[in-house]
Amino acid sequence: MDAREEELKCPVCVEPFTDPVCLPCGHNFCQTCIQVVWNMDDSKTSREGPLFCPECQILLPPDLELEINLDLQRKVQDVFARAPLLEGSPQMSPSIIMCDQCIGKTEVAVKSCLTCDASLCSAHTLLHQQREALRGHSIIEVTEDLISFKCKEHGEELKLYCQEDQIAVCCLCIGVGPHKNHQAVTLQEACRGFKKVLEANKSLLLQRKHLTESAMQDLEPLFSEVSKNAEAYRFRIVEKYRQIKAYIEEDQKLMLAILETEEFYTNKWVRWRSDSLEHHVKDITAALRTRQTLLEEENDIVFLQHCKKHGLGSQVELPLKSVIEQEYSTPDKMKTVEQLVDNLNEVVFQKTQRLWSSLRALRLDPETAHPELEVSADRLEVHWRKKPTPEKKQKTNISSQYSVRAKESFSSGSHYWEVAVWKKPYWLIGLSCGSATGDQDSEYCNSDFNNAFCYIYHGNGKYLVCQDSNEKPLAVRKSIQKLGVWVDIQKGNVSFYDGDTLTLLHSFCVEFSGPVYPIFNPCIDINGQNSQPLAIVHLKN
């Protein structure tokens, strides 16, 4: 504790000032403490004997009026309000506990005796330590609540710990009471056992923190690597385009825009991954702080009560963030751009697919989002929220799927859009039906507008496609990081692509009876493993 905090403590109770008053000599005391020293209370207007300062012993006027030192009180509140406290832990009471053994002038108690059911001043505490008959008494830190340290049924001191019920008990509880025949150990043995577990948890948390911090450090170079790769590919592609620039200037602009988009979304993912690991480090640090505070608790009863209350008597269950050896995969989309340029140089667009030229700039419609989903301010991302907003709770037209619909619908023509899914373990992307009449308030829309009639689903490394409840497993050689969706209304075709390699994954023949809406389902998040958002890909230029 620093000197500033010591200056903000009352010389009598040695605790932070409570309603501090300043005497004419300049010394400060708690209002209650100085009243106890002077043997008076607020109702008294006069006192017997002279008033004096406990610090400097100077005599004070008998008609002295005590006024709260507001400046000092604000300083105390400002300093000690920021001190970290264990959640649920007992705070030191500002009230003064007096010695129950003193006769005549009463002294402030510094300890409590469970055997005597009394609070003791320093002199009577010393007496307990010196007299042979009193040495066996249980002395604890001074407290007003002696009842909590004794058995509520037998009134005996809590000295044992029932291992079956995991609670502190007295000897009678084990001998003839409700814990008869239960396995029991002394409080000291129980505390030693719990502390061993906490020490093991602490070591495990430190190890996990180190691994997570190492993973964060491994992510740092990826920011520059993404830009470096993009720059290298950008240079080579520009050189290739110079050979055929006379008739492909528009195509060159498209390819450069794809590269910039790839750089942007890759950096977005790396940044998200770094933030996720940073939050994990904070969670681990908070858990370490909680356990360290408990390890420093000297009172066995308080220690055991909080171990049970917070469930800290077993091995730590904080999930370990997966650490991927190669977080940043090969820049497939950049390679695809270069390959397309090479193909173009050979066949001049005759056999090269250009889905990206039809890339649509979709926006999400927050009004259609499930209550437990959150749509970003730019309406390009959606992720699991867990805590639905009150206004969303009141909506009656939300389906059972954790989905959000795009603002745009398509009734004619061909359209293509991409969604960055990266390494999300669970997601669903597809199409839902709109009203054939265009009426958004129709009964069909209100009851089922987020349900997909055609979609692709990824679940922990496995893919399946579905059309009208007919599901089919999908063999995918390489994990998809960006999914492309192609819809041709006139031909009645829906196709899913690997957005990086433009590899066709699956096609459906669909009979469209009305407008269709893209839908996006980031799926439920469990233990922070699926919290990453789905992000709609927009060309940067």
Automatic annotation (TrEMBL):
Identify the residues that the record assigns to the B30.2/SPRY domain, covering every copy: 342-541
The UniProt entry, under PROSITE patterns, shows: B302_SPRY (PS50188), ZF_BBOX (PS50119), ZF_RING_1 (PS00518), ZF_RING_2 (PS50089)
What SMART domains does the record point to? BBOX, RING
The reply to whether ATP-binding figures as a keyword in the UniProt entry is no
Keyword Zinc present in the record's keywords: the answer is yes
Coiled-coil regions listed: none
The superkingdom of the source organism is Eukaryota
Which residue range or ranges hold the RING-type domain?
A: 10-57
Q: Where are the transmembrane segments?
A: none
Which UniProt keywords are given for this protein, alphabetically ordered?
Immunity, Innate immunity, Metal-binding, Zinc, Zinc-finger
Q: For the B box-type domain, which residue ranges apply?
A: 151-187
Task: Please name the CDD domains in this protein's record.
Answer: Bbox2_TRIM16-like
Name recorded for this polypeptide: Uncharacterized protein
Q: Which organism is it from?
A: Cirrhinus molitorella (mud carp)
